[in-house]
Amino acid sequence: MELTIKIENKEGVAVICPDGFINAHTVNRFEETLQNLVKEKQYRLVLNGQGLEYISSAGLGALMGVIEEIRDNDGDIHLCNLSESVFNVFDILGFTELYEIFEEEAPAISAFGGHNRK
Amino acid sequence: MKQFFNVEFAADTIFLKLATDVTVSICQLAGFSNSTAKDISLAVDEAVTNTIKHAYHFDRRRRVTLQFTITDTELTIDVRHNGIPISDTEIHLPDMEEYMKRYRKGGLGIVLMTRIMDSVAYGSVADIHYCRLVMKRGQSHAG
User: Residue B39: which CATH number?
Assistant: First the structure.
């Protein structure tokens, strides 16, 4: 298994749960998932990294590909449950300033209540 | 004493996982911490991806070679190919502040490589071109 992606709708927020790794080989699936959600006008997204073993710049590029449209529509992408190594990739690039990162899923979802864009 | 390891595979992104797994194992053998080994494997992923994408335009019939050289002082990883060469002068690091303001995508791989490794250089010997990634072996990276 390289990458499977499950999407759950919780309190009007789409929770994306990738399982496996995101690199240049698997990124199309991840990109397609994000783009489909945006097409469906789902602008409140949580990326739950609990099953995400690895992400390369290809995955971060996929997030960058949709974030502008999402924020233009008063939405955002919140990240949660990132492993140390996945968090490290966001941190090396300074993306921890661009995305709100939570330890757990519940606060990542509830933060959309009083939406506070970074 | 120098130790060499070579791995060769088709220029197919399906082998990225193999390239990163091998890199982690060799980094651990060289005494790097797990965390540094994972960072180095990410730099290798980015270099191999760039090779497949830019040097070979996703032509899976071509070959990529990883050469690992461990010396007392450093680990050198050459990502070799015989496709379109890239020179240091063609590499432009994006201004990350501007990058994030404008939500750009692409070009992040080279930023990751340069921020992780002690040095990143491009070169050629005859028809073989390489991206050379170097990490010094020392206390700060030790496992």
Answer: 3.30.565.10
Considering only the beta carbons, identify the residue of A25, A60, A93 that sits closest to B16: A25
C-beta of residue B40 within 8 angstroms of C-beta of residue B106: no
ipTM of the modeled complex: 0.89
Per DSSP, the three-state class of A16 is strand
For residue B135, list its beta bridge partners. Answer: B75
pLDDT digits (tens, 9 = 90+) for A44-90: 999 999 999 999 999 999 999 999 999 999 999 999 999 999 999 99
pLDDT digits (tens, 9 = 90+) for A1-18: 699 999 999 999 999 999
Structural domain containing residue A11: 3-110
Q: Give the predicted TM-score (pTM) of the model.
A: 0.91
Question: Which 86-105 residues of chain B touch chain A by CB within 8 A?
Answer: 96, 100, 103-105
Number of domains in chain B: 1
